[in-house]
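To whoever is on call:

I kicked off a structure prediction for a single chain this morning and the downstream step that reads the tokens threw a length-mismatch warning. I double-checked the sequence; it's 412 residues and nothing unusual in it as far as I can see. Pasting both halves so you can look.
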Amino acid sequence: MQSSPPAQRSRVRPASPRRRWIRIIALTVAVIVLAALVVGGYTAWSLSQRLQDAAVPLNDAPSQAPSLSTYDEPFSLLVVGTDECDDQVKDAFGERCTDPGAEGNRNDVNLLVHVSTNPRRVTVVSFPRDLQVAIPDCTREDGSISSGVGKASINTAYEAGGLTCVADTVSDLSGQPIPFAAKVSFGNVVNITDAVGGVEVCIGGDGIDDYDAGIAWEPGLRVVKGYDALAFLRTRKGIGDGSDLARIGNQQQYLSRLLNKLRSDEVLSNPATLIGLANTAVDNITPSESLADPLRLAQLGYTLKDVPLGDVTFVQYPVVDDPSDTNRVIPDDAAAAVLWDALARNAPLALTGEAGANGGVEIDPSQPQPAPVETTPAPDATTATPAPEVVELPGNVSGSKADQSTCSVGNG
């Protein structure tokens, strides 16, 4: 199968001073929430009230009732990171969080976590914040209606109607029903990273030198905690071509390495760490009503706990430059159709493009890499039915597997 041309470079638009310090970073998003499900289910009876107090409705209700068993249908979980300054970071960022001219809260990080069944596979799709999409009519928290628009940046959906509006927008774009969703904000990266004792990341290239993010780091491995993790996930100008598309690869490296740590004995064998992580995660998410249920938390946690790392794939939604505004991007519908079709058929995914768009990350040359996915899978022994053929994703669907090591390509 012939791959598509590489993703076009998204041109960088200078950020205004009032916004550059309060833009959302990649928080710990999808993996954090998945971790909360895994460990939160076991302490959910004491934590669920906090979840229920903040829960919001979704239009796609789960089709399966919660129970103490696996969730036996494919499902999608949306994780949204907003650019609001919560109490924890206000003191640290001062006027950068109190600028009266700053824009309202936006969903600058949007991850759709698709979970298949028989066998279980997890695919985490990152949507660029400047992706131009249709925003549907949305109901605000006060009951008023925000009129839809035919074309706007995807990161305006939260302003229009909160988490429910983001879920409807992503569902319309992807064709995927979204029964579960959660929102996280600025301070989460500090709390969650500290709860697991920090995350080791790889810095390649010439190192990261980004004044705006407060980073001047040499190449090599580095354990980041607290505000260092926040700065690492915020950096844009210090990696690749300095674009938001390059930053997505950086965020995916962090999530992959966090997932590996969460699955390690260092975390799983320490009950105090698990309980602390569950408390921290629950205190730092706004869930959909479908997640604010102790049985549901246990059910999804049990469903996800044994997915092999080689079957967890991080990808960036394929885009091309917007011909009417080269600072924005629009969907590459043909490339996206290949991805959605593969997920619908639960086909194994083979990545043919770069580890990250716009030079943001590269495969770590110092680490052994997993064997490539077999392109001629054997028949299922129980049914004598051939397994789905491996789907080679187009070249502009960049990404990596959770059992691959990547390094951020610093341009310092």
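Update from on-call: the warning came from a stale cache, not from the record. Cleared it. Sanity check on the structure: Confidence is low (pLDDT under 50) at residues 1-32, 34-45, 375-379.
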